[in-house]
Amino acid sequence: MSFEEFIGQYGLIVLLVVLLVFMFWSSRRRMQKQKAEQEQRARQTVPGAEVLLQGGLYGTIVEYDADNLDQPALVEIAPGVEIKVHSQAILRVVGPNPADDEIAEAADDATDADADDKPNNV
């Protein structure tokens, strides 16, 4: 059996198998990317973070339970005005993250402590 005969008889099947493998690989890669984005969003979504909601409203998270996404989040959209929204209504974190500020403060404190421990050569 020559190559031309093989392609003539089985070419379509080979093409379909290659296409199915590509579709499976592409789908799996996209799902992994979406999962990583969701995990990053969950880490950033903490009380005090400024967020953009699906409806175009900006607000500050007051209460959010990352473990129970069926529990509504409490978002302050104006001073003294808090609304309950579904956790999936939070589109993205847009403002400074208080957790990042705490990490930066801890790093600054550690740097200051190291500077205090060093002797002065005056």
UniProtKB/TrEMBL annotation:
<dbReference type="GO" id="GO:0005886">
    <property type="term" value="C:plasma membrane"/>
</dbReference>
<keyword id="KW-0813">Transport</keyword>
<keyword id="KW-1133">Transmembrane helix</keyword>
<keyword id="KW-1003">Cell membrane</keyword>
<feature type="compositionally biased region" description="Acidic residues">
    <location>
        <begin position="101"/>
        <end position="115"/>
    </location>
</feature>
<comment type="similarity">
    <text>Belongs to the YajC family.</text>
</comment>
<feature type="transmembrane region" description="Helical">
    <location>
        <begin position="6"/>
        <end position="25"/>
    </location>
</feature>
<keyword id="KW-0812">Transmembrane</keyword>
<keyword id="KW-0653">Protein transport</keyword>
<dbReference type="GO" id="GO:0015031">
    <property type="term" value="P:protein transport"/>
</dbReference>
<protein>
    <submittedName>
        <fullName>Preprotein translocase subunit YajC</fullName>
    </submittedName>
</protein>
<keyword id="KW-0472">Membrane</keyword>
<feature type="region of interest" description="Disordered">
    <location>
        <begin position="101"/>
        <end position="122"/>
    </location>
</feature>
<keyword id="KW-0811">Translocation</keyword>
<dbReference type="InterPro" id="IPR003849">
    <property type="entry name" value="Preprotein_translocase_YajC"/>
</dbReference>
<dbReference type="Pfam" id="PF02699">
    <property type="entry name" value="YajC"/>
</dbReference>
